[in-house]
Design a protein that fits this description.
Layout: E1 2-3, H1 5-11, E2 27-28, H2 46-107, E3 111-113, E4 116-119, E5 123-128, H3 130-139, E6 143-144, H4 150-162, E7 170-180, E8 185-187, E9 193-195, E10 214-220, E11 229-233, E12 239-242, E13 244-247
Parallel strand pairs: 7-12
Antiparallel strand pairs: 1-2, 3-4, 4-13, 5-12, 6-13, 7-8, 7-10, 8-9, 10-11
Length: 249
């Protein structure tokens, strides 16, 4: 059913006058039983409000993830920075310690080799037995030097050459290993053994005498002379000197 505002005015059913405009729009009323008008779409409609709410929720969620991600990144960065600083401090400490150890060793005429300070305290005339050599190293808080491979033997041989007195052309110095005749190995203080053929020996050595188990190294200035290398000998033999090693870090 459709009524106009002008018709309503003419009926004058209301107690007061109702001024109506002739051009008023028609008022439509829904008949009973008709479906309700669906929600309007668009920015002003219910669907629009839901759409805006979804966008707002996604924006809030995305912002939340961004903040969390930033915090995680900051924490990881701090951890990495802490690790870098720690490593730098360790490197600086090692550098300082190495520099100090090297200075300590060189100030005593030694050679810093594999974290040990190698020294040749005596290298002159004959007169030092094995036991005396052990005592001399102990006075310095050190032990008789042990040679573990051919490369080290060459390096320490070259170092010993620099300690040769001007009036000495050849010398033999005590070392810390022992020769085991039973299996032809070198025995170290740690209990480790290495085959004797991994080293350079003086011509004719190692010999087979059971008492000759203490090891010395022959050093000569003459580069063309072949009589160099290690030899096993009795501990009472008097040699020119000794080589010590001291752990310094």
């Amino acid at each position: 059913m459709s009524l106009s505002f002008s018709s309503l005015c003419q009926t004058r059913r209301f107690s007061s006058l109702i001024e109506c405009d002739d051009t008023a729009a028609q008022v439509n009323t829904n008949s009973a039983g008709k479906d309700p008008e669906p929600p309007r779409d668009g920015i002003d409609g219910e669907l629009g409000r839901i759409h805006l709410s979804s966008k707002y929720g996604l924006f809030i969620f995305g912002s939340y993830l961004l903040v969390i991600g930033s915090l995680v990144f900051c924490v990881i960065s701090q951890l990495n920075l802490h690790a870098d600083i720690t490593k730098l401090q360790d490197d600086l400490s090692n550098l300082t310690r190495t520099s100090g150890d090297e200075y300590y060793c060189r100030s005593r005429g030694g050679l810093l080799y594999s974290r040990k300070c190698i020294t040749v305290p005596h290298l002159s005339s004959y007169g030092m037995t094995y036991d005396q050599a052990v005592t001399e190293c102990a006075k310095r808080g050190a032990l008789l030097a042990e040679i573990h491979d051919l490369t080290q033997q060459t390096d320490l041989y070259d170092f010993a050459l620099t300690k040769m007195p001007a009036d000495t052309s050849a010398a033999s110095i005590w070392l810390g290993m022992e020769y085991k005749r039973s299996n032809s190995t070198l025995l170290y203080r740690s209990g480790m053994e290495k085959p004797s053929n991994q080293f350079q020996w003086y011509p004719g050595y190692p010999n087979s005498s059971s008492s000759d188990k203490y090891v010395a190294m022959a050093v000569r200035k003459d580069a063309d002379f072949t009589g160099i290398g290690m030899h096993n000998i009795d501990k009472s033999t008097k040699w020119h000197g000794l080589m010590c090693e001291k752990e310094i870090w």
